[in-house]
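Amino Acid Chain and Its Fold in Token Form
===========================================
What this section holds: a protein sequence and its matching fold, both as plain text.
Structure line: whole-number tokens from a learned vocabulary of local backbone shapes, matched to residues.
Purpose: to set a sequence beside its fold so the mapping can be learned.
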Amino acid sequence: MTGGNLLTSSTVNSPADDDTNSADKQALKLTGDRILTSRAEVEAVVLKFIEALNIDDASAVPLTENAEYHGMFSPTPICGESDVRDYIDQIAPFMLNETYGKMIIEGGSVAVMASFDSVNGIHNEGAFFFEVEGDRISAIRAVFDTRRMFAGKEF
């Protein structure tokens, strides 16, 4: 994988060696939901998305059939596996030198700090939020300051 500053599962996961940490267990008691996969499996799914951005190829991103991508450049979510995959392929070339820092995983919910250079050379920072169902991503939310990408441009 090129470009990413990816964390190992030992730095991402809680100190507990089991797949369900105390926060996850508490959430299970409160909601009755079940965790579909281990923390390591959830991390692996998200890392496939990160790799896709780094190599400008979303073909291997594991998406659910009804996946959604929520981003700043689309007033409505991009919906459906094929459309989300196409959108990732379209935006990846404009996000250069992606690096990824802290990753927080709780059940199938993931938050990842991210930074990249935009096409105008401006460094930008933000975050991705994921929902993972089983071994596939069902939702992606990208949050960063879009104004920095257009700094110095006249419209």
